[in-house]
Automatic annotation (TrEMBL):
This is Esterase/lipase family protein. InterPro entries: AB_hydrolase_fold.
Amino acid sequence: MDLSARLADYAWLVRAQLRPGRPDWTGGAGCPVVLVPGIWETWRVLRDLGDALHRAGHPVHVLPGLGTNSAELAVGAQVLRRTVTALDLRGAVVVAHSKGGLIAKTALGLPGVTDRVAGLVAVATPFAGSRYATWFPARPVRRLSPRDPAIRRLAADLSAHPRIVAIRPRFDPHVPRAADAAALAGAVEVEVPLEGHFRPLGDPRLHEAVLHAVAGLSA
């Protein structure tokens, strides 16, 4: 992935974060979906994906209590648990990006989530952490290092893996591939022919893969 492609990836993220308005994703006969963005992202980064899910008949929910998603995984997991419980969701599927997938996996083991959430579709999630986070100057990013105790515990816990579909772009500059092989044992892995960490979220090919995964988990 060359420099121009990396810059386009970040430019897409900035534009996505700045999009105004909030769509009405209520209603729909499909299973409910909860969107969980990545670190320093808002729900707007997942807006294209939310639109695609809602067009397919799914009511779509976000986590306003997540803020900028810079807190520890356990904090985000509790926000997800409270939202799922408050909305009284049943048979829901969580669709998450990057760190959001780690939050959702953490939450899958919590009372009030296990019996309400059918599974997780995680896009570009570093299930074993990312070595690029190890020396990052900001602490919220360093928590995503493979050395972080919370990441190591989560990677060793395989109990939720039968309910996880991990979707990856062909090349992701932020998430190394080899490190996650053991951390995803028992989960379903899907590769899409896309490059980047952020831009794939706006691509119909990714949307199709996510819709297929949501249908499989909800069934």
